[in-house]
Every structure is written in C-alpha cells, then in structure tokens.
Known about the structure:
- The chain is an all-alpha fold and 282 residues long.
- It contains 16 helices and no strands.
- The longest helix is centred in the last third of the chain and has 15 residues.
Amino acid sequence: LRRRGAVAGAVACYQRALELRPGHLGALVELANALQLCGRFAEAVATYRRVLDIEPQVAEVHNNLGNALKDLGQLTDALVSYGRALELNPRFADAHCNLGNALRDVGLLQEALVSYWRALELKPALAEAHNNLGNVLRRMPGRLNDAIEEFNEALRLKADFAEAHNGLGLALAQTQGRLGEAIAQFQEALRLDPGLAEAHSNLGLAWTLVPGRLDDAAAELKEALRLRPDFAPGWHVLGLVSMRLGNLQEAAAAFHQELRLSPDNPAALEALAAVAQQAEGR
C-alpha cells in the first residue's frame, strides 16, 4: 500500500491489524513508519516508543524515533535517540548522517561535519550525506568550493536528487559571477520536484537580482508560500518584491502575514511603515 502512495490507507490497515493482534511488533513498526511518512509525527513518536518498550535494542527504531522527534522540532531528544542508535550499531551510516543533521540544526556545524564524514567512511555512496555535507560547508567561511564539490558528488551518485540541485544552486549563488548557473540549478531542482518550496523561494530570490525579472520573482515566491505558508522570511521577500513592483496592497498583506507568523518582528514593522510612506507619496 505504501509503495502505491496510499500511506493513509496503510495507516488504517496497520491500525486494524493491531486491533486484531495488540502489541504485534511488526505491525507497530510499520504503523510508526507510515505515520512518519504522512506527517503525523507526534503519533509516530508515540508508536516508536511503544515499539521500544517491547524491544529496546533495535538501532533502526531509535534512528527513526530520532527522525520523528527532529520533525517535531524536539532536537535535544532527537540527538539522544540518534546517540542510542549508534551505541547499538556504531556502523549505522544513516544514523551518523541523521545525527549530523540534528547537530547542524542546533548550530554545531563542526560536529555535524564529523558525523557526515563518519557516515561517508562507512557508506561512500550515500548521496544524502554528500548533500548534507555540502549544505554545512556552504555556511562556513571559505568553504564554498568544497561545498560545490560535495553537491556535485551527490549528483554524480544520484542525478535526480532535487535537493542537491537546490543546494548546489545556493552555493553557486554565493559565488561571484555564477548567478546564471545557480538559476539553472534551481530550475533543474523544480523540474525534478515541482513541490520543492525551498527551490521556488531560492529561484525567486535569484530573479530579484536579474533586471526585468521581478514578475518572475514574485511568481516563484508566491508558489513557495503556497507550498509552505508558514515560511515567514518568504513573506518578507514577497513584500519587498511587491513594493518594487508598486503593488503596495499586496506588499502590506505580505508583511502582515509575516507578522502573524513572527509577531513583533522589527523588520516587518519597518517594512509596513515604508509601505505606508510610499502610499502617502503617491
């Protein structure tokens, strides 16, 4: 069922199986995995914990619990779960990679690099680790060329890796004189995954730097926000682009939406004041 994309149906099937055979370990694991896939992270966490109450020594379950906790934003608990997975199986490359992601998200970039390198020692063809390594290197001073190498390696291993095209685009956009290449990477990411909100947002930002492409920038930002309406920085950029296009009502609406998501944001308040001043000057 899950392979056919019917994840919600799979959840119902596993729940029914557990009604017939309460505590069945295999059904609990599959239910937790399905809940994770369909974004029901809190329920996934609770179900993984039920599995671990029955069998606490399964590294894969600790790793998956870490993923669900990370998706809930509970990074400290996620770090504990990944650590437990690696205590049980120190050669678990995917858990090293996931630990790196959590370390990155709490701002421990150097520690994240160590986790990614360990993952790649164990599994050199792990494209996700190369991609994640590139994303961390891109944020570190003087490491853009290294980041670009990692993204290219991820794409050599997995040519249809939309997130790696997006990451490569970001690294190229940070490199002087390579904006056109960056735009091409964002476009390729969206060809592969039209629902990748980050690539729409990044392409929109890139178009703001190209003369005559503000309408395209606004369109990409709107699509990014349609896909991810809780992205406050995207509303801010859309507001700025709308101001440059003279769409003051749309700009004000964008900044108000940003404030709903990020109350008392001084940048949004200043932008709203600028919209009001621009409207008075007409």
